[in-house]
């Protein structure tokens, strides 16, 4: 599903974040130390190879909402933007910290002159953020930032499961239509 927010196309797809060759950067739902870990982070590190961990671990630790940029190594993308999302029920205020992840990732993309990037659903895995609430935060963030983006023209949300995809499409339709 696709939506036009001015000059920015936002889309939701079901798939594997490590298999998005048409975007300049993918976003990693990182842990504070930027170590390989499990979930999205583990998949990205496995696909990129050991040099990603060597570079990224020198950039940590991160605080919730922060983002840093590394090379993509063996990924089909030149760059990886690592964001530390909030742990739901622990890091407060969750909605502002989650929004900061997306804001800071887009800020880094703009600074690098990137045109496209793909996000996972940050914090909705082991960090426990409810998917619907997260999708609402993401929709509001994209809606408010899209008019100010100069280089980023394509934002893709890559959702692993069909239920997560359906929830994001439903919420994005509510905000973008």
State the main characteristics:
177 residues, alpha/beta, Leucine Aminopeptidase, subunit E, domain 1, seven-stranded mixed sheet, 5 helices, 7 strands, globular
Provide an overview of this structure.
It is globular and about 45 Å long. It has a single domain (2-176), classed as Leucine Aminopeptidase, subunit E, domain 1 (3-Layer(aba) Sandwich), CATH 3.40.220. By secondary structure, it is an alpha/beta fold. The model has no long low-confidence stretch (mean pLDDT 97). It is 37% helix and 20% strand. A 7-stranded mixed beta sheet has the order 1-2-7-6-3-5-4, sandwiched between helices. Helix 3 packs across helix 4 and helix 4 (131-145) packs across helix 5 (162-176).
């Amino acid at each position: 599903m696709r939506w036009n927010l001015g000059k920015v196309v936002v889309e939701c797809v079901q798939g594997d974040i490590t298999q998005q060759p048409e975007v300049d950067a993918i976003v990693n739902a990182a842990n504070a130390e930027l170590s390989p870990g499990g979930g999205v982070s583990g998949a990205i590190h496995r696909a990129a190879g050991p040099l990603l961990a060597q570079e990224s671990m020198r950039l940590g630790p991160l605080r919730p909402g922060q983002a840093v940029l590394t090379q993509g190594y063996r990924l089909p993308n030149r760059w990886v933007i690592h964001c530390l999302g909030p742990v739901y029920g622990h890091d407060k205020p969750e909605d502002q910290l989650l929004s900061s992840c997306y804001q800071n990732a887009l800020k880094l993309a703009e600074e690098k002159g990137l045109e496209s990037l793909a996000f996972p659903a940050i914090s909705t895995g082991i960090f426990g953020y409810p998917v619907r609430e997260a999708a609402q935060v993401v929709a509001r963030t994209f809606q408010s930032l899209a008019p100010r983006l100069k280089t980023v023209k394509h934002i893709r949300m890559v959702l692993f499961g069909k239920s997560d995809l359906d929830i994001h499409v439903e919420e994005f339709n509510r905000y973008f239509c």
